[in-house]
Amino acid sequence: MNKRIISFFAAAALSVSMAPVSLADDGIKVVVDGVSLPAGDMAPFIEDGRTLVPMRAIFEALGATVEWDGETQTVTSSDKAGATRLELRIGEKSVKINGSDVAVDVPAKIVEGRTVVPVRVVSEGMNCEVTWLADTKTVDIKSGAPLEFWAKDSEVLASVIEYVKEVTDPGSDKFIPEEDRIVVSDMDGTLMNELCPSYFDYCLFLHRALHDDTYVPSADMAAFAKELEEGIKIGKMPEGVDKKHAGYLVESFKGMSIEDYKEYIRDFKNTEAEGFTNLKRGYAFYKPMVSLVKYLQNNGFTVYVVSGADRTCVRVLMEGNLDIPENNVIGSDTTFVAKGQDGKDGLDYLYSSEDDVIIGGDLVVKNLKMNKVSAIAREIGKHPVIALGNSSGDLSMCQYTVNNEKYEGRAYLLLCDDTEREFGKPDKAESFKKTCEDLGFYTVSMKNDFATIYGDDVEIVK
pTM of the predicted model, to two decimals? Predict the structure, then answer.
């Protein structure tokens, strides 16, 4: 759940049907990251069913800067990372967050010489989680720290923040309207682990073909699965592995309904991530990259996952990991048919009340390399402005993004160079870094730019 959704519920929880009353009468307290703020000379109060709080004291407790322009009656604030800029004018029922208007029910006002704002401004403006604790009459504020998993001295993260500031500022000549803020991101190796011990949908296929007692593969499928399993172990993949695997994967689930297929994936998602402690295979997402996606979304970017993996797999993997709608997922595709279609052409078959959609078992497209560009043009219909990737399979997508003639496009490629917290391959990463730099793409070092990868409770087992 993203912070904007949390903000809605937080604001609702802090709505109380009662007449305005001061802190002295009602005893409302404010706690920021576990620390109670002194009441000082301005206390929270309730007006029109909304809790208003002193802005400067709370924002400064969150590490944000606060500036006042008396002539225009305007307050501006930036969070401590410089990632979010808020602007509000006294008396207006909206605030600007990184250039985008956000409506509020009660406007900011000046009371006893202090600016007070509805609590929603705190949750939206500073990306915080705000909770009303009724038993203790406490406004509990927890800072979002959306980019906390990155190294504080990360230059590439600083470049992202600077870019976002420029393109979300209506006064900038680089401004990009929200409807054109399109991000395309690869998944395996970019957002999540691809080394436990391989891509998620490779491992799913191996489980289905070799280790699922309920399924009997064909002889050629079993032979390929064994070859693939051995190739993963020795680091030498079978020839033509990408397309062969994709074809056999969809064949292995032929005839299964979409929902049953999703349930199968969900079960496999909860298996242990090989080579790691305290980590499930389907939740092995890189915390810094997840925070980056959320940060971009909070700044008005629409994020699409454009993966080489099976599209339904990707959709299930988003569950509980990222707030990416199913229709914002692009991946490799299989045919889908009606349960009763029995080989008939779709133009000659009428879907019945007894039908269900099942997996047809034929590969439509393997979504890698130039196929990613084709899919973006076909399914999104807009030119991306940011691309996130990690391999040669993403280079065409990245080049397409930076070729954007209307806006400045950026491409960021992740380097798997960390051998302490991940099964990194420094030599391969160094070679790929040179390729990216020659193309004018930014690179992100797992080793140097990530403060953590999976969290401190996850350890690598070698």
Answer: 0.76
